[in-house]
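Hi R.,

Here's the input for the flavin-adenine dinucleotide complex you asked about:
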Amino acid sequence: MNVSLEMSPGVDGGWLYAAGDVNGRALLTHQDKYQARLVGDNIAGRARQAWADHVAVPRVTFTDPQVAAVGTTEGPAREAGIDVRTARYDIGATAAGALAGKDVDGTAQLVIDADRRLLVSATFVGPGVGELQHAATITIVGQVPIDTLWHAVPAFPTLSEVWLRLLRANAASPELPERPGTGRRLGRRGRNRCASVSHVAFELTDAVLPLPDGVRAELRREWARLAAPGTWLSGPERVAVAREARAARTFSDADAGLPALLTEVAQSVSAAADLVTREWVSDLRGQGMAIEEYVEVVGVVSRLAAVDAYVRGVGSAEEALPDPEPGEPTGERNGQVRWRNAFVPTHPEDGARYALSAVPAEEEARDQLHAQLYLSTERMADLAYQDVLSRAQMELLAARVSLLNDCFY
Ligand SMILES: Cc1cc2nc3c(=O)[nH]c(=O)nc-3n(C[C@H](O)[C@H](O)[C@H](O)COP(=O)(O)OP(=O)(O)OC[C@H]3O[C@@H](n4cnc5c(N)ncnc54)[C@H](O)[C@@H]3O)c2cc1C
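And here is the predicted structure with flavin-adenine dinucleotide in place:
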């Protein structure tokens, strides 16, 4: 029987309701009982509609191991046009799994709607996973944003800790960052929170690999650039952007005193670049952010990523951020850039090389750092170039690392 959301097949007089398997909506005892409760309410005059039996039907297959799932699984979600990200994790690899011993073996998977930042489905395979599932049902029914889910901390050591691992492993890789809803214009407090760097930057005495002098000098130049007023951002704002970008890698909020929008951009570009869409960038402009300001944040955050990865690569701890310099941003616009096909205007054409051209100082800084950490633009074109590695070896290494990090290369 086809029924309405009120479980009514629509007979004359409205006296008939049909709950349970007979209406074919969700052939499971608990859903039938949900519908029956709802019918009871409707008969009693409390108008209620059933919707959870479309989006959040929990189901457990009581095999050994159990299979538990709720929500729309990956394939149908994709077919429905949802931009899905999936995350998988081995349940046995949680602390509780390790404590329980070899029998705890299984997989958990989340399917996330990347646009709406909501959980679409969760599937668990393993012993007793039917009990893990209700948290997923609540998350879907309650439309709990992924960002908020970070704060639903499971107790240690329980199997529910798989939720933490799943959020970490999600296909945004690096993970979806938090998008905090609050922020303040950078004030005195923000300035005071910047680390005081009394030592010479990039001494890296704990590095296990030697640093070429050219690289060390360039890293110091980059820190000076970061601290100085830029084209659209002041020195304190640039350093605060870097602070938020670092915090986003561990899903925390640096509370660096930036306005909410700037915080969101710094965190998103840092830790979820693959979620940056044309619509999101255009929405930033709608919210009042100059496109050049966005480009400057991309410049600062992407060079920070390169610097931090390099420093970690030689076996050292990340360098403390520099003290910001006073002064005003220049506010200069590059009159030569044009909207072409990129998310931002560029000159003279689209492509990674010109991505920052709306803010020439950022483009120049990228070129300089790039030349030291990788190759100069001129050498990029020389496929026979030989340094410690040949060009071919560099490309192979870069492609492999990109693959392992689930990046575009
Ligand atoms: C093998 C199997 C395993 C299942 N395992 C699970 C599970 O693990 N978890 C889960 O949630 N669901 C499970 N289900 C599904 C679940 O059993 C059904 O969704 C649920 O029982 C449906 O409840 P219902 O009241 O809507 O219908 P039913 O349970 O089918 O009840 C309908 C009743 O109406 C009676 N009836 C039919 N015609 C007439 C008539 N003309 N006059 C009077 N009475 C009539 C029938 O005899 C029956 O008793 C399983 C189903 C099967 C078959």
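One thing worth noting: The pocket of flavin-adenine dinucleotide is lined by residues 20-22, 27-30, 32, 62 (CB under 6 Å).

Cheers,
M.
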